[in-house]
Design goal:
The chain is of the alpha/beta class. It contains 9 helices and 21 strands. A hairpin with a 4-residue loop joins strand 16 and strand 17.
């Protein structure tokens, strides 16, 4: 959540490098606590080059469960409970719903659906999973029953409006008098005399604490002299934003397939996000023909109304990931680095934020340990073997 008072009582001058999802959440939280916050980003204020902008905002821990570790799933369920309070503290409108998600498969891929059902029964029997026949599909999502006669319903899952949230955080940051340096490059981060010296657009600035939320911008090839993360890689993701007023789907839908999982995330006013490819590449060039054909043909196979949809955007973006696909938070004296949220940024962000604020408390209090209820899920690391 976004607390109002810093536990250490020490108000500090803090620079946050990176204004994606975590950078904005951290800026709002720390400014509310009374810290003097500077937010620095190489992008403009709209954040259109961030991984958070090119996302669907799906909060589907069970939907991700077969492709991630158990701690990610647990953080996802905890975050689902935290998101409503976090969003209610923002003045601007944000979109959040928790009406469940649906998994479907075409007849030839039915074995993929069965395999997922068995996995969830074996590993997550304490969470609700409902089998759907055609009539139950009619009751939940009538238009899906035109092409499918069975599926799985995961009633605990939900979604939020990722771009609406970025805008709401932008408005909150403006009201909190945070200094926001856009289109600004941090070329060096150096710790000197218990402070941190930043080189920003060839000018030096000294602060008490730096929080590094640069995502793929912290890779060795990009960060260079600015405390790069050597184990960090980029994973390419691609998606479409479609305007499809003839499609009435209310819940996130996953189409099971042997090669990929297609998701369809309904937004408001007839908009949908369709994704996502997952390619081990640091190529941020426009979407490939192959990806476009696969995503759009799969969307059409779910609902024929997508044939007449308008393509409003096609986006390719890079997601940051470590070799184990786990998020990491590390404290190196007066620099806190948080990275590797991979494809789970919105899913686990509230827990990551809570751990980040615990790391700030520890750093400003000169402690060498972090005590929090989430330490077993996402440890704050005082060892730096995976960086530099």
């Amino acid at each position: 959540m976004l607390p109002n008072k810093h536990q250490s009582g020490h108000m500090a001058e803090i620079a946050i490098v990176g204004a994606g999802l975590m950078g904005r959440l951290a800026a709002v939280s720390l400014a509310r606590e009374g810290h003097k916050v500077t937010l620095i980003d190489k992008d403009d204020i709209n954040g259109t080059n961030s991984a958070a902008y090119a996302a669907a905002g799906m909060l589907t821990p069970l939907g991700e469960a077969m492709h991630c570790d158990a701690n990610i799933v647990e953080m996802g369920f905890i975050s689902l409970a935290l998101w409503p309070t976090l969003l209610s503290n923002l003045a601007s409108y944000t979109y959040f719903q928790q009406q469940g998600s649906i998994m479907v498969a075409h007849e030839q891929d039915h074995s993929e659906l069965l395999r997922y059902k068995r996995f969830l029964q074996q590993h997550y029997a304490n969470h609700a999973v409902q089998e759907l026949d055609r009539q139950r599909l009619v009751n939940l999502e009538p238009e899906l029953s035109r092409h499918f006669n069975q599926g799985l319903f995961l009633p605990e899952e939900g979604q939020l409006g990722n771009r609406k949230l970025l805008l709401a955080l932008e408005e909150e940051i403006k009201t909190l008098a945070v200094e926001w340096l856009t289109v600004s490059n941090v070329s060096a981060i150096k710790q000197v005399n218990n402070c941190v010296e930043l080189t920003i657009n060839d000018e030096q600035r000294t602060v008490e604490l730096v929080i590094d939320c640069r995502g793929t911008g912290a890779r060795q090839a990009v960060a260079q002299q600015a405390m790069p993360l050597n184990d960090l890689r980029a994973v390419r993701g691609e998606l479409f934003q479609l305007f499809a007023p003839d499609v009435n789907i209310q819940r996130p839908v996953r189409l099971m397939h042997p090669r990929y999982q297609l998701y369809i995330a309904p937004k408001t006013h007839g908009y949908f996000v369709v994704g996502a490819t997952e390619i081990e590449s640091d190529d941020s060039s426009p979407m490939t023909v192959r990806s476009a054909m696969e995503l759009l043909s799969a969307a059409y196979s779910v609902h024929s109304g997508f044939a007449e949809a308008n393509i409003r955007q096609h986006i390719s973006q890079l997601r940051p990931a470590f070799s184990d696909n786990q998020p990491k938070i590390s404290i190196d004296n007066k620099v806190i680095q948080i990275n590797g949220l991979y494809r789970h940024g919105f899913l686990i962000a509230p827990v990551v934020l809570a751990q980040l604020l615990s790391a700030v408390n520890a750093t400003l209090s000169a402690e060498q340990s972090v005590h929090s209820s989430y330490q077993h899920l996402l440890p704050v690391n005082f060892s730096h073997e995976y960086i530099h």
